[in-house]
UniProtKB/TrEMBL annotation, chains A, B:
A motif (HXTX 2) lies at residues 115-118. HAMAP family: 2H_phosphoesterase_YjcG. Its EC number is 3.1.-.-. Keywords: Hydrolase, Ligase. This is Putative phosphoesterase SAMN05880501_101383. One of its GO terms (molecular function) is ligase activity. It comes from Ureibacillus xyleni. The lineage of its organism: Bacteria, Bacillati, Bacillota, Bacilli, Bacillales. NCBIfam families: PRK13679.1. SUPFAM superfamilies: LigT-like.
Amino acid sequence: MKFGIVAFPSKKLQDLANTYRKRYDSHYSKITPHITLKEAFEADELEIQNISKEIASIAENCAPLKINASRISSFFPTTNVIFFRIEPTEQLKNLHQELQSRINIGKPRHVFIPHITIAQDLTETEHDDIFGQLRMIGVNEQETIDRIHLLYQLEDGSWTTYETYRLTGDEK
Amino acid sequence: MKFGIVAFPSKKLQDLANTYRKRYDSHYSKITPHITLKEAFEADELEIQNISKEIASIAENCAPLKINASRISSFFPTTNVIFFRIEPTEQLKNLHQELQSRINIGKPRHVFIPHITIAQDLTETEHDDIFGQLRMIGVNEQETIDRIHLLYQLEDGSWTTYETYRLTGDEK
């Protein structure tokens, strides 16, 4: 079974992302707007129970995430993905690093660039056109996320929540 | 903000439901297949924290749910909804009743008939045609669900998980 770890931003920020995603994101209907903390990895029923305990222990020691969606960026030319850039704070980098090292399944395919995808699977012309417009509009949202989620993927590509972990650590 | 409480069945049963939902269910892309335990209700940020504590306390005392999807039924003529009927065990009825009485927001709009919707918003002709076919195919799945989820709804109608509660009570 395929699992992934994400943080969902506030309803306000999800609603904002969806105004773009419904038009430009091919994965719009598969998952609500999110920040990926660990990319999809394979695990069976038994493995996931231990992994879930590891995540719980990491979350207990992690303070609520202060995030800042500061501008609209693109991964072009690597991929035609447009996203809300989330400032890569020490806190986010540490959480990602800890999830990666303690759940030692699946090497990261990319450098960790925290983001909320708002457009993907565009042609190059679409990408240039849409990115040009969205970059001008921009985004500027600060908020605190106090929980993360372990999800699993169904055969049709959609994601269901397996477990929720409250971030209850102290600020460092 | 609009909240609801659901139990997601196994990936296997969700995948099976989705083979029908992708063709026949207008809500297919808004939420993965689920059993509704408490219908949508309104609550604000502060209220939901207390409600979440109530749900946690109910879940702690509820044993994992043994469910039996025993046949394909329809709510026709009340609505043109076709669903996997889940046998209404004492355990399910008690959990529903306890959620209803302890989270005293929003009266139930229907008698509690546990089910997984697989088709809705059909015309009467479509309903009769599809129900005729599906009833013959039927369903027969038994499984145990060990957690329930509190979800909230985004402006586009899709649902994001707010919290997960493990069912850790003893069997009665």
